[in-house]
Amino acid sequence: MSWLDDVRFDADGLVPAIAQEAGTGRILMVAWMNREALAETAATGRAVYWSRSRQRLWRKGEESGHVQTVRELRLDCDADVVLLEVEQLGGIACHTGRHSCFFRRLEDGEWREVDPVLKDPEAIYR
Amino acid sequence: MSWLDDVRFDADGLVPAIAQEAGTGRILMVAWMNREALAETAATGRAVYWSRSRQRLWRKGEESGHVQTVRELRLDCDADVVLLEVEQLGGIACHTGRHSCFFRRLEDGEWREVDPVLKDPEAIYR
């Protein structure tokens, strides 16, 4: 019996994983994990997700260098969402070059981009 | 064209919604929203989710009294996750009577309950 057996993966074998920045508490991103990704994350201390678009393990930072070091893993009451406390290397989690993926805020009936691009994505994914 | 059209609901018409506490930055819970829940949340300023188990709108706090007042709504880069900044009435988001649903932490290969029950669930759901 492993702690992995307590996690209720969905019909596709996935759970949502929230990356929250240590210190600031900012939500950096939400991605998905399968059992293998979660096991590797816990074993290595680096965030590993399952890329639904590419249908393969996605070791966060493998292309961008924006690795996430995991300080803590939490599970919710329904055991179907994982919360990671991470340190974000380079201070950029989003593929758009922003600190967080949640850079749009609802204002007056539209989504406004309220956080700056810190680095040109073309410079990140050379 | 509405801001709701920018949101990419999944095949079931749902998006995950993260409730983060204003001030503390704590992640309180993750639930799901359909278009109607998201529209009502924005219109009323109170968090409304879609209950997958009950297959109906779930106005958070309707039974427990633990209403969430929404201060801000954000959308991620893929437009498929919503982040709510909320004030949690009663300081309890979880149906177990805890502040947050993420009360289990991975320690030495097992999930340990690390946050206290603040109120007996039987007293909450009378």
TrEMBL record, chains A, B:
Uppermost EC category: hydrolase
Keywords, in A-Z order: Amino-acid biosynthesis, Cytoplasm, Histidine biosynthesis, Hydrolase, Magnesium, Metal-binding, Zinc
Co-factor: note: Binds 1 zinc ion per subunit. Binds 1 Mg(2+) ion per subunit.
Positions of the Phosphoribosyl-AMP cyclohydrolase domain: 29-103
Pathway as given in its UniProt record: Amino-acid biosynthesis; L-histidine biosynthesis; L-histidine from 5-phospho-alpha-D-ribose 1-diphosphate: step 2/9; Amino-acid biosynthesis; L-histidine biosynthesis; L-histidine from 5-phospho-alpha-D-ribose 1-diphosphate: step 3/9
Assembly: Homodimer.
Family: In the C-terminal section; belongs to the PRA-PH family.
Name of the protein: Phosphoribosyl-AMP cyclohydrolase
Source species: Zeimonas arvi
